[in-house]
From TrEMBL:
PANTHER family xref list: CAPSULAR EXOPOLYSACCHARIDE FAMILY, TYROSINE-PROTEIN KINASE
Primary location group: membrane
Pfam families to which the protein is assigned, alphabetical: Wzz
Transcription in keyword set: no
Gene Ontology annotations for the cellular component aspect, listed alphabetically: plasma membrane
Transmembrane parts of this sequence: 30-50, 328-346
Taxonomy of the source species: Bacteria, Pseudomonadati, Bacteroidota, Sphingobacteriia, Sphingobacteriales
Compartments in which it is found: Cell membrane
Keyword terms: Cell membrane, Membrane, Transmembrane, Transmembrane helix
Bilayer topology term: Multi-pass membrane protein
Protein name per its UniProtKB record: Lipopolysaccharide biosynthesis protein
Entries under InterPro entries matching the protein: Bact_polysacc_biosynth/exp, LPS_length_determ_N
Amino acid sequence: MENTGDDKEISLKDVVIKLKEWVEFLFSKWPTIVIMCVIGAILGITYAYIKKPIYKAQLSFALEDDKGSSGLSAAAGLASQFGFDIGGGGGGAFSGDNLMGLMKSRYMVEKALLTSVNIKGKKETLAEYYIIFNKLRDNWKNKPQLARIHFLPDVNRSTFSLQQDSLLGEIYRAITKTDLTVDKTDKKLSIVNIAMASENELFAKYFVENIAKTVSDFYVTTKTKKSEQNVSILQHQTDSVKNELNNDLGGVASSIDATPNINPARQILRTPSQYRQVKVVADQAILTELVKNLEVSKIALRKETPLIQIIDTPILPLEKEKVGRLKGAILGGGIMGFLTVCFFLLKRLIIDLLK
C-alpha cells in the first residue's frame, strides 16, 4: 500500500517536471511564436479587407388561424343543402411546419428566382441577377454552352433547356444550403421569419419579398380554387335567373296589355298572364336563395384569402455582417499562434517518444 502511494507521488512529480520542461521549451521558442502570430494577424487583416460584407434581409409574417369560424360553418351547412360546397376547411398542407418546408421547396424557390424585378431601371429575373453579381459567366469562359444561358423575364418555364434546368437547380441548392433560413421566432407563436443572407443587398431584399409572395399566391390559387369555382357558378346562375325574372315580368305586362278588357265569361283569356305571374313568384324565390348562397360563398372566399399576414419587411439599408480589421487581426493572430504552439508541442512529444 505504501509503495502504491510512493508510485503515485513519483508519477505526479514526473508530470509536474514534464509540464515545466514543456513550458520552458515553449518560452525558448517565443520569437518564432510571436512572428507567426504577427503573420496570422496580417493574414486576418487581409481577409477582413478582401471579404465582402454579408447582407441579411428578414421578413416575418403570421399564419392565418382558421379557428373561430362557427358562424361560417353554419352558413356552409345552409349552402350545402342546395348542393354547394363553399370550402372553409383547415389549412392542411399549408399550415405550420408544412408551410415552412414549402418555402424552401425547389418549385417555390425557382419560381421566386424567375420573378422579374426592376434593378437600376432594368427589368430582369432574380436568377439572371444572381449570375451577374456572382460573376459566374467569368468562370464559364471555357464553357460556351453555359455562357450563352440567360434567364430572361416573362419566359415560359416549360421551354427551358436541360442546361437551364440544371443551372437553376444549382442556384437553388446554393441558396437553400446556407443562405435561406425559414423558422419560427417562438415555438408557442405562429409568427414565421424568413431570412436571406447574400453579398448583394438588393438580391437579399427582393428574394425574401418574392418568396413570401410566391408562396402566398400559390396558396390562394390552390386552396381557394374550389371556392372561386362555386362563386363563379352561383354568379352565373344568379344572373340567369335574374334575366329570366325580368323577361317574365315583361311577359306579364304584355299579356295584360293584350287583353285590357276581358269578358267575364271568357276567363281562359287570363291564363297566359296568370301563368307568367306564377313563374315570376317561383323565379323570385329561387333568386332569393341564390343571392343568399352567393353572398355566403363570397364570405368564405374572403376568409381564405390570404394565408400570410406580413408583419415586417426588409428595409434598405439592410443589416450588414462584416469581419472588422481588429477582429480579423485578433482571430488570425490567435489561430496562427495556437497552431504554432501545437506544432512545437507535437514535435517535442515525438522526440521524447523516440528517446
